[in-house]
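Hi F.,

I've been meaning to write this up properly since the lab meeting, where we talked about keeping a consistent format for the predictions we share between groups. The idea is simple: the sequence comes first, exactly as it goes in, then the structure tokens exactly as they come out, then a line or two of notes. No screenshots and no reformatting. I'm using this chain as the first example so we have something concrete to point to.
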Amino acid sequence: MSKRSSKFCASFKPPPIHRQIAAAGLSSNCQRLECWESYPRTAADPAALCRCFDPSGGEWEDIEPPEPHEWLDSMLEKTPDQSFKDYVTSRPNQPAGNRRTIYLQPLCEPRELEGPAFPAGPWPSWQALEAAVARFYHPLRVRTLPASPMSKLNPLPQSRMNDYGTQWNASQVLDSLRGQLPSDAYCLLAVTMWDLYPRDEWNFVYGLANLSARVGVFSFVRHTPDFGSEDEKAAHMLHRSMKTMLHEIGHMFGMRHCTWYNCLMRGSNGAGVEHQQNHLHLCPVCLRKLHWNLGFDIPKRYEKLLELYAQHGAGSRAFTAELQFLQRRLVALQDLPPESTKMPELASW
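Output, unedited:
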């Protein structure tokens, strides 16, 4: 995300470990879960959850102080801390009744998704992207709607030209999507290879969402790599696109930009600006937020994501850190009783 100009704001200071532990809602010795009263009646084993959210072993990467023009330099005033307790008290969107499906809407000509994946075609592997959403946000269902070009949206959003071709007004795209929300949708996320901007004074935006309307849109066009072999290009394009897709959907669950760790939910002004690239995985604070909302089995979720990333990114630099992280977490949690972190009222594999 980039604004044409930014004003000075106070410098970001990476939080110390005691604040990170408190933000995850753990006691100072990481042996007790705070805010336990907010959980469903048949909640998971609290001792097992403490193991999953305990950051004291240093498994998660800290945020480094930002450099000029990076997100936490230019956007700090719009990036308040959100602890687990803050998240719960904000009363975030939750799946309810029949609203348990994440809908994905490709904004393109149908033939674009029928061809080969990038770099032979314009799009990253749609099959892999859909599978990533399904495993990351399990147990919600994921459905892809028929592809439709941006020009068919009604009302038609405004557009302008830039170096990426036609650039569409993302705020107006959201307005057009409001009337297309299926009755069983938790949310509707549109995906495009067109560039986006949120308002006239901004250069671009990777994605934009309206939480109350449960609609969002994001673009992959700025993720196209121009380096490496064909296999490396495909893996980098897929990795970057997964990060944007999973990050933007995370906002639909009420998760704000993370200020605790170098997490998937950390704000970013893009690979060309940020000196520290964020990861595909959630930090303990954000993982606890999502788990409280969906109730998945945490080790099983790690297993499913490891399987997917190995299938599409094994041997590539882009996915190496993700694969290693998931493997370490599974080793660390291997002695937990089966399904001890699953909340039966919310989730079932």
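Notes:
The two ends are 36 Å apart (CA to CA).
The chain has a mean pLDDT of 91.

If this format works for you, I'll send the rest the same way.

G.
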